[in-house]
C-alpha cells in the first residue's frame, strides 16, 4: 500500500516540500502570471493563505546561484517551455521576509529590520568584489550591523545595483509580508515613528530602480503612506477584490476535494463549505488552506483551525475601541445580516485611531474576517456588501465579544456586591443595563439565552471566589439550582440564582415568570445545600427573561 504524503503543516519552504515529497497543491503557474504583470506587483491576502510558500517557490525558480530544475519538473509551469528556457535560475534574487518581525517597541523593531537586512548582505557577499572602496565600507557597515538608518534606508536599492554589476543581470526582488512590522508598529503605538523608516527602505528599492527586473511584495494590506507606493511606475496590485491571481492563493473547491479524497477522508461537504469557504477572491470562491490542511491532518475533524492560529490582536483591539455604530453593525453581522461599506484599498493605519468606519471594515475584509458578496457602488465606486466569512470567523466574533464582556468584570463584581449589601433595586437597574449592552451579540434563539444569562452571572462572581464557593448547575435539594454562592464566612449571606425563560403559554408576563422562579427555589428545596454549611441568611434571586427583556425578583 502506497504511503500517504506528509502534509506540509507549518512548512512554507518550497524546496523542502518538493524534496521531501510532501503534499503540494500546484500553484506554479503563478510564475507565468507574475512574468506577464507589471514591473512591481503587490499581492495582498489574509494570513496563512500561502503567500510565503508562493514567494519561496519564486525564489527557487529565479535564483541564479542554484540549479533547481528538479523542483519544477512535473509541475504545471514545466510545460511552459519558453519560460523555463528564459527564466529558470537566470536571475540574481533578493529575497527578504518580514513575517516574524513582531517586536513591541520601536527600538527593538528597528533593530530587527536592520538585522534582517544585515543577514541579507551577509548572504550576498559575492557582490563585494565589484565594489568601489567607499561602497565596500558601506557594505561592511551594513553586514556588521553598525550602519546608520540612512544607509539601511538605501540598502535594498544599493544591493540590487551591486548584484546587477556582479551578474550583469537585473534583479528579482521578493519581499514577503512587508506590512507585518507596520501593523505591529500600529498595534504597539509607534507607527508614526516607524513608518517613514520602513517606507523609505521599500520606496527607495521600488521607485525608479533601474536595476530591478521585477519586484513582488506580499502582505495583508496595501499600506498607504505616501512614501511607499506613490511614484512606483508600472505597479500592479492584486487584492481580494480583483481577478488578478485570484486562484493562486487559497484553495478552490476542486483542490479541497482532491486533498480530502487523497487522504481518504469521509467528510460532510456541507460542513466543510459552511466552516472554511466564504472567501471571495475576485469573484472566485476560495477556501482557507490552513484550515483544510489541518482538517486533513485531523482526519476530517471540523474545528476552529485558522482562528486559533493567532494574529487576531489588531481585530480584537478595533472591536474593543470601536464606536457605537461599528458595534451595532458587528451585532448585525453576528446575526447573519450583511452590511454595506466603502472599501479603501489604500489602508491608512492612522485612520483606524479615528475609528474611520471605512478603514475598519477594509481591514476586517482584507484580513479575512469578513468577505464581500457583491459590488454595490456605481461603476468605479468601491462600495461593497460585506458579511462574516464562515462559521469559523463567526465564532471568533462571538468569542471576542464575550472576552470584551469579561473585561468589564470589575464593574460586574460591584453589581453582585449590591445584592450582598441589600441594594436589590440598584442590582436590578445595573443588571438590565448590562444585558441591553451585551445580549445583542448573541444568537437569542434556541438555547443561547440561558447560556448568556448564566455566563453573565458567572462573569460577575468570578472575582468572589475568595469569599464564596461557587456552584453552577449542581444537584441541590430535589432539583437543580442554576447557580449558588456559599459564603466561606458563616455571617455572610448565601445566594441562589434561578433563570426563567418566559413562556407565552404558561406565564402571564415576565413578572409572573420571575415569581415562578422564586417559588421554584422555595418548593424544590434549593436552600438545603447552603444551610448544610451552617449559613442562616439566604438571598433568593429569580431572573426572568424574554430575549432582551428582563424582570428580577430578589427575596
From TrEMBL:
Pfam families: AAA-ATPase_like (PF09820), PDDEXK_9 (PF08011). Gene3D superfamilies: P-loop containing nucleotide triphosphate hydrolases. Residues 8-229 form the AAA-ATPase-like domain. This is AAA family ATPase. It comes from Marinitoga aeolica.
